[in-house]
Structure formats: structure tokens, C-alpha cells
Amino acid sequence: MSLNGWVAFWAVTALALLGLEAASMALVGAYFALGAFAAAIAASFEVDLWIQVVVFAVVSAVTLLLTRRPLKAALRSVP
User: How many CB atoms lie within 10 A of CB 14?
Assistant: First the structure.
């Protein structure tokens, strides 16, 4: 796939994940959307696909692990 194809793929994936997050409010899709946006940025630098996938996985996992629990606790305390 061409450079623009991978950037578009990751961008569309991110938007779809944000849409699913908005519909479900499960606080999971947004993290994978961030990973997909990061992969789109990586794709724009013309890195190999395997690097894009690693960027997607690492950014998704790190943001999920670092912020999900505190965010859920904060949302539970809101009246």
C-alpha cells in the first residue's frame, strides 16, 4: 500500500474507534484510537508497516495502562 494509503487506513481506523467509543462509553476505544493516530503519524514518516503496528500497540497499551483506572475513578466520583 502507498504512503497515503497507510495514513488514510490508520486515520479511518482511529475515527471508527472514536465512533465506537462514543457509542459505548466503555473507555477502551479511545485508547486504541490514540494508538491509531500515532500509527498514522508514523506512517506519514514512511516507516515500515511493522513499525506502524508496534507504534499502534505500544501507544494503545501505555495510554490504557496509565490512564484508564484513574479516569474511571474520577468519573465514578462525579455526581
Answer: 22
6-21 confidence digits (pLDDT tens): 999 999 999 999 999 9
Instruction: Indicate the SS3 state at residue 27.
Output: coil
User: 66 — phi, psi (to 5°)?
Assistant: -85, -25
**Quick one: angle between helices 49-76 and 29-44, nearest 10?**
150
| Residue 16: how many other CB atoms lie within 10 Å | 14
The 10 Å Cβ neighbour count of residue 62 is 14
78: its cell numbers: 462525579
pLDDT single digits (tens) 29-77: 899 999 999 999 999 999 999 999 999 999 999 999 998 788 777 777 7
Question: Which residues touch 53 (CB under 8 Å, ≥6 apart)?
Answer: 39
